[in-house]
Structure prediction request, 356 residues.
Amino acid sequence: MSRLAEDNRRFARWSRDHGRTVRGYLLAMTRREDLADDLTQEVFCRAWRARRRYREQGNARAYLLKIADRLVYDRGRKAGREVNFNEESWQQIEPESRTAEPSESLLQAEAAGQLTVALSGLSSVQRRVLLLRYYGQMTFSEIAQTIGCPLNTALSHCRRGLLALRKTLVENVP
Amino acid sequence: MSEAPDTRLQHRLELATSADLAADALPDVQTDALREGWLALGQLLEEAQPASHGPLHLRSAPWEKTTRRRQLAVVVGVAAVMMACMTAGWSFWWMNRPDQMAAPDLVPESTPPSLPADRSQQTAVSDGPDELAWDDTLDQRLASAGQEVVRIQQSWDGLDDAFDAVYRGIELVEEDIEGNTL
Prediction:
């Protein structure tokens, strides 16, 4: 099989197996579907351009999420501000280019609202650590390497983030 | 100096955030609290996701674009080669087409036909299928006759110039005789 055909197959498989996970991570980080779609496209484009440098190590999902995380972080940094998890901040960075589709169900809309509130109470680093752990199932060493901090710092962020979420979502539930 | 990893915390967090964990596997209350926060986050993330039906479809897969570009390049290359072959073949046919091969030999202008006219040639021409066809031999004879006339005229002009010189000399002698200068 030619190298191009092999690459084609691999990326088609990645799109099928990990596309939704990558989009879910980006949607959780940006809370905007149009932006998540654009960034998902960009993630796979970047992975394709870098395919010659990729070495198969069995964790394509983590690889793609690292690209996604870097993409989100760079977008926010270019705008000269921290990536704050709220729609208003992202609206200033990336003005919505098309009309957002209405939520598919009331339950989903309610969950989306609660998620926005919960994650907005975390720092950007805490969000990145928790979402990379959830979507990428990365080890804490990999997470620390991805976000560029020591391992103990990543562990600390994760612990504080989980306790804050428990307080918001579990203790404060009427 | 790098800090020694907090292995205890790392182990606790790995347990609390593991994908599948038995309920009685949590070692202490702190890990249990972390696990509660983790499960609540997971539940919200799942509920907040838009309903999905099947795998994600990208707007344009870059690997498909590359394949399409290569296929297009191959098609364009083959078409260009075919066009070049057709052009070369047509040019070769045009240069060697049948009407070009049977063209009659032209009579050179430097050898006019002999006078008087060769009636047998005229007859052969006039007896041809087209009696009104242009007679090149007649045209050539007219041209040679004109050239002869021009040659004779030029020779007369030369003689005229010579006579002018003689007349002028005679006039000079008469002037001398009248002026008693001889």
About this structure: The longest helix of chain A spans residues 3-30. Chain A touches chain B through 54 residues (CB under 8 Å). Helices of chain A lie at 3-30, 33-49, 60-78, 87-93, 106-120, 124-136, 140-147, 151-171. The mean pLDDT of chain A is 83.
